[in-house]
Design goal:
Largest interface: A-B, 52 and 52 residues
Protein name (chains A, B): Polyprenyl synthetase family protein
Oligomer: homodimer
Order of helices and strands of chain A: HHHHEEHHHHHHHHHHH
Family (chains A, B): Belongs to the FPP/GGPP synthase family.
Distance between the termini of chain A: 27 Å
Number of strands of chain A: 2
Cofactor (chains A, B): Mg(2+)
CATH architecture of chain A: Orthogonal Bundle
Shape of chain A: globular
Pfam families (chains A, B): polyprenyl_synt
Keywords (chains A, B): Isoprene biosynthesis, Magnesium, Metal-binding, Transferase
Number of helices of chain A: 15
Chain lengths: 282, 282
Amino acid sequence: METALAAVLPASHIAPESLHDAMRYVTLEGGKRVRPLLAFAAGELVGADSTNVERAACAIEMIHVYSLVHDDMPCMDDDVLRRGKPTCHVAYDEATALLVGDALQTLAFEQLSLPMDGVAASAQLQMVRKLAEAAGHGGMAGGQAIDLASVGKQLTLAELEYMHLLKTGALIRASVWLGALAGRALSNEEAERLDQFAKRIGLAFQVVDDVLDCEADTATLGKTAGKDAANNKPTYVSLMGLAEAKRFARELRDEAFAALEPFGPAADRLKALADYIVARSF
Amino acid sequence: METALAAVLPASHIAPESLHDAMRYVTLEGGKRVRPLLAFAAGELVGADSTNVERAACAIEMIHVYSLVHDDMPCMDDDVLRRGKPTCHVAYDEATALLVGDALQTLAFEQLSLPMDGVAASAQLQMVRKLAEAAGHGGMAGGQAIDLASVGKQLTLAELEYMHLLKTGALIRASVWLGALAGRALSNEEAERLDQFAKRIGLAFQVVDDVLDCEADTATLGKTAGKDAANNKPTYVSLMGLAEAKRFARELRDEAFAALEPFGPAADRLKALADYIVARSF
């Protein structure tokens, strides 16, 4: 992923240099690349060509990184540390951070529009659609708007779940889908099962994030810890308690495993990722 | 366009309400819709179905509007008036303006991914690619980065032209292309001529904008007038003088006309638009 992203991002010595340099700064050398890994694992499930999955994985990661850059800006979460480095508007300036996010989003969709050998144009269009639905007003951006509006409010568990389904879950789910769209067509039942897996993992990811925000220190996390509590943001931990949140994450993993059962060993990598995501909170 | 955009934008009564409300506020009831008009006129040239061109036109206009919303933010041009109304971060807040721009960009690409009856999936993918190239780091966002870096600097005419080619020209050019991609395939010579037209018109549009920024008052313009001079930004007027800038705009129009000559009366609407764009500065 590091090599693929480095090849796709514009070179720092080409004008506008500061924009390109900042795009590389925020995207390279950092992040767990969970979404790309999910895309590759889903691609493996359907025998997809890894070059094509790589393209989709770059697109997904760029959408994710753009959202981090914008979320960290002073008018949003106003954060100074991300992936262990100063955030974009701190290392560069606010105007650059704004443009970096904008240009990364565009580059993500551009990636999906480039020829993919052996993938039908209609499947590529589906990728564009899935990614757009996951990232837009009915997905990630919408979830962020609900999150902003919820600061200092008491949310119900159902409201919190809806917010995270949009904010984090939608893109995790799309990661699985984009990988799967690069390979053989799925039956309706297979598609439904894969989607069940993706939904569970998306939710588990957020529950674990809340656990980590509560338990880990800033150095381990690479971003400011304890911020949600300090901002009086509702989290799974604040609503369920720490032990119950951990139990819930494991329950979601087990349900995700069950959904993949009929796929047999082809789903092993997806299962390993589900395990990895949840094990972070042990 | 007004009806089409209103139908495509998320409803204000659906959560997150403030995001959706602000998306409609910035997009509807305003703007000259020059880019959609160019797409429709180019569609007419190649016998495109207007329903499909409408989809592409919505996508282009949403990219344009997102760029206005972000450019007006305090960390960029810090403007309070746009299309005769308070800008998004003034009417709502900065976080909402950031998300509105982000979500409009996503929605633009989503539009191009929806089924278009009678348009090949490969042509739709081409639309995604053309729009992404025009909007991203090598187009609009890159031009904006160069613009920001040029405040207070003395640019040469060649540097100014390059900046505007990216910042404004690329999307104008893509508008013509997306309309054309909805219809019959063009020969290489036709494609080259249409592109010559689109390039000339994109540049003329910016020259005329500079003339208007210098000559018109804020009420007529619907945005703050004289801002470029106040910000010490280089413009065609500051580099060429007012009379020469007007002459240059007319020259570009005449060259644009000449490029369309072999198309005959099918190009009449495109010519009328070129005339309209330049006549604004008379």
